[in-house]
TrEMBL record, chain A:
Residue ranges occupied by any SUF system FeS cluster assembly SufBD core domain in the UniProt entry: 212-453
Protein name in the entry: Cysteine desulfurase
Lineage: Bacteria, Pseudomonadati, Bacteroidota, Flavobacteriia, Flavobacteriales
Pfam families named in the record: SUFBD_core (PF01458), SufBD_N (PF19295)
Family: Belongs to the iron-sulfur cluster assembly SufBD family.
Organism (species): Flavobacterium rivuli WB 3.3-2 = DSM 21788
One example of a Gene Ontology biological process annotation: iron-sulfur cluster assembly
Domain SUF system FeS cluster assembly SufBD N-terminal: 125-204
InterPro entries assigned to the protein according to its UniProt record, in alphabetical order: Fe-S_cluster_assembly_SufBD, SUF_FeS_clus_asmbl_SufB, SUF_FeS_clus_asmbl_SufBD_core, SUF_FeS_clus_asmbl_SufBD_sf, SufBD_N
From TrEMBL, chain B:
Gene encoding the protein: sufC
Gene3D superfamilies on file: P-loop containing nucleotide triphosphate hydrolases (3.40.50.300)
Family: Belongs to the ABC transporter superfamily. Ycf16 family.
Name assigned to this protein: Cysteine desulfurase
Species for this entry: Flavobacterium rivuli WB 3.3-2 = DSM 21788
GO MF annotation: an example: ATP binding
NCBIfam families attached to this UniProt entry: sufC (TIGR01978)
Keywords: ATP-binding, Nucleotide-binding
Length: 482, 248
């Protein structure tokens, strides 16, 4: 330490101060409300993170302080008070699942309503489930099988400790700390999440899955997911979310980074069902998510999402098609009901030659909800023969909801081929009557019509997920027709 | 089977049915004919329970039970089937999936278990052979991109699958060429039995050459103004609807 400046001293003092000042607090399971450098440090210490990680978080925090919350999205909500949120909450130690019997019955009930149980999923589909409950990973299964292939699938906290070289190399490489307001916030205070690494040439033998759940009122969730597929590897990753009803808004600002190296393929599927607020539009989760993947040469990334929950959604899973011949896909179903608002879509950034992207977006609006598709297709000057096909379909139910489409196309290469198709339709009384006449009650008829409308996307989901997604669509639209 | 008493119905304040009386027994085929705007399609919609029509008076009984207040799906569960004049499209929903849903919903309503997949497949095979339907057709989206003939044949296929007690064929002959008409009519004839009844609603006598009715009723201005045997259809064909108009 040749140059020990006054600043260094100050930082050290702050750290020390916090060590004492916060010591008792960090022993508790929930941090006091509010966000500051001290909180960031406390969080990092609590999680026993190495210094580089603490520094990385602080860098993000300092960037975040300078940033303002974005307002361009077609959503209206009361901005969260970031000082009224507690940034760390761990479940009690005994909550760690030794067996399924110990799983929260409320969670199991939700699964039951969806017609699945974790047990069934494990047994039937060989899904390795890593349940993130209240910010801390509490269960990991199938780890052994995966380890035999050299696959790493663990919580991001564990990865920071056990595989620092990988985390340090890739964390923030696709979504930098200062990427946007919520990504910066996430980088500063992410509590946990998942990490996945598939070694060269390995085909992951099972679908990797994580169930997220927001459990404790007033606890913001800041998940961080990092998936690295090394050259020539393949992985299918499933992310599913359920949450019980809450009176107050809960903030969720996750970051997902995907890295597909040469010839690798990542399939990332999401079913999101967070509490959307009640029929009067009260409560519900704010979901401000940054998801982005980068494709190297001949690599492929597919995002498939079924979004039925959250009061406000702001989410654009994107692909940077950096390598030549790389492929990006986005398949989305976004359902909004009652007072839900969704502004979702994708960005396909074509940088390499012969890059291809496909966007299929299905928006379903009911009640008094607003559903917006926002997509960017950008073709760089070097991206010769880039191709994009976009299709955005909206289905309206009733007369009080809205569907909006905001496609942006920027091309700097004349050899690019870009196609965009959009349709808007309404569920007709005649369709419903036709189904009724065949003995199908109205709720079921709506579900059938909606499933038909969403089929192209549902087909992209792994089997067991597709079944769950179909049921979710039904549950989300319950009571949407009078 | 079906008993309609003094049925009055209207749509948007316009009276369309003005006192219909009709008795249909099991094993019978009744034809209802009449000029455009006489209320033929309204009658079929009202029997099926379409809520766009308001029943202002009268009752509909199915096997002695008053179904006038029943929801359309409840009527379907009790065995009422309507072959639509204009079948609707449901994109992304295959004919097979639609039928599976419909059959299982009816079974559920009648306290039965879902039909096992192998039984369902057997039923589909049997009925599609009966109606000379290429099974590839059944994996297509319901009515989407179907020709007029395909749509009508699909309606009859659904009728075959659901095995209703009372089938109402609303202008099933419209938009059909003679070959398609023959196939559809043959299908209906194969499905006739002592235990079910058919009401054929048609503008022309043509269909009745293939589906021979036991009774013919003439609907005019929301009322049945003439009833008779199958010869009434020929008389009507010969004299034209002006004959009815001049008498009423």
């Amino acid at each position: 330490m040749s140059k020990y400046t006054e600043d260094d001293l100050k930082i050290e003092l702050e750290t020390k101060e916090y060590e004492y000042g916060f010591y008792t607090d960090i022993e508790s399971d929930t941090f006091p409300n509010g966000l500051s450098e001290d909180i960031v440090r406390a969080l990092s210490l609590k999680k026993e993170e190495p210094q580089w990680m603490t520094d990385w978080r602080l860098e993000a925090y300092r960037a975040w302080v300078q940033m303002t919350e974005p307002e361009w999205a077609n959503v209206h909500y009361v901005k969260p008070d970031f000082q009224a949120i507690s940034y760390y909450s761990a479940p009690l130690k005994k909550a760690k699942y030794e067996s399924l019997d110990e799983v929260d019955p409320e969670l199991l009930e939700t699964f039951k309503k969806l017609g699945i149980s974790i047990d069934e999923q494990k047994m039937l589909s060989g899904v390795a489930v890593d349940i993130v409950m209240d910010s801390v990973s509490v269960a990991t299964t199938f780890k052994k099988t995966l380890a035999e292939k050299g696959i790493i699938f663990c919580s991001i906290s564990e990865a920071i400790k056990e595989h620092p070289e990988l985390v340090q190399k890739y964390l923030g490489s696709v979504v930098p700390q200062r990427d946007n307001f919520y990504a910066a916030l996430n980088a500063a205070v992410f509590s946990d999440g998942s990490f996945c690494y598939i070694p060269k040439g390995v085909r992951c033998p099972m679908e990797l899955s994580t169930y997220f759940r927001i459990n404790q009122a007033g606890t913001g969730q800041f998940e961080r997911t990092l998936v690295v597929a090394d050259e020539g590897s393949y992985v299918s990753y499933l992310e599913g979310c359920t949450a019980p009803s809450r009176d107050e808004n809960q903030l969720h600002a996750a970051v997902v980074e995907l890295i597909a190296l040469d010839d690798a393929e990542i399939k990332y599927s999401t079913v999101q069902n967070w509490f959307p607020g009640n029929k009067e539009g009260k409560g519900g989760v704010y979901n401000f998510v940054t998801k982005r993947g980068i494709c190297e040469k001949n690599a492929k990334i597919s995002w498939t999402q079924v979004e039925t929950g959250s009061a406000v959604t702001w989410k654009y899973p994107s692909c940077i098609l950096k390598g030549d011949n790389s492929v990006g896909e986005f398949y989305s179903i976004a359902v909004t009901n009652n007072f839900q608002q969704a502004d979702t879509g994708t960005k396909m950034i074509h940088l390499g030659k012969n890059t291809r992207s496909t966007i299929i977006s299905k928006g379903i609006s009911a009640g008094k909800s607003q559903n917006s598709y926002r997509g960017l297709v950008q073709i760089g000057s070097r991206a010769d023969n880039a191709r994009n096909f976009s299709q955005c379909d909206s289905l309206l139910m009733g007369n009080n909801c809205g569907a909006h489409t905001f496609p942006y196309i920027e091309s700097k290469n004349t050899s690019a081929k870009i196609e965009h198709e959009a349709t808007t339709s309404k569920i007709g009384e005649d369709q419903v009557f036709y189904c009724n006449q065949r003995g199908i009650p109205t709720e079921k008829a709506i579900a059938l019509i909606v499933n038909g409308f969403s089929k192209e996307v549902l087909n992209k989901l792994p089997m067991e997920f597709a079944v769950e997604a179909q049921k979710l669509l039904e549950i989300s639209l319950e009571g949407s027709v009078g | 089977m079906l008993s309609i008493k003094n049925l009055h119905a209207r749509v948007e304040d316009k009276d369309i049915l003005r006192g219909i009386n009709l008795e249909v027994k099991a094993g019978e085929v009744h034809a209802i004919m009449g000029p455009n705007g006489s209320g033929k399609s309204t009658l079929s919609s009202v029997i099926a329970g379409n809520e766009n029509y308001e029943v202002t008076d009268g009752n509909i009984y199915l096997e002695g039970e008053d179904i006038s207040e029943f929801a359309p799906e409840e009527r379907a569960h009790k065995g009422v089937f309507l072959s639509f004049q204009y079948p609707v499209e449901i994109p992304g929903v295959s004919v097979t999936n639609f039928m599976r849903t419909a059959i299982n919903e009816s079974r559920k309503a009648n306290g039965l278990e879902e039909m096992p997949a192998n039984e369902m497949l057997k039923l589909i095979r049997e009925k599609s052979e009966l109606l000379e339907i290429d099974r590839k057709f059944l994996s297509r989206s319901l009515n989407e991109g179907f020709s007029g003939g395909e749509k009508k044949r699909n309606e009859i296929f659904q009728m075959a699958m659901l095995e209703p007690k009372l089938a109402i064929l609303d202008e099933t002959d419209s938009g059909l060429d003679i070959d398609a008409l023959r196939i559809v009519a043959n299908g209906v004839n194969k499905l006739r039995s002592e235990n079910n009844a058919v009401i054929v609603i048609t503008h022309y006598q043509r269909l009745l050459d293939y589906i021979v009715p036991d009774f013919v009723h003439v609907l005019y201005n929301g009322k049945i103004v003439k009833s008779g045997g199958k010869e009434l259809a020929y008389e009507l064909e010969e004299k034209g609807y002006d004959w009815i108009r001049s008498e009423n």
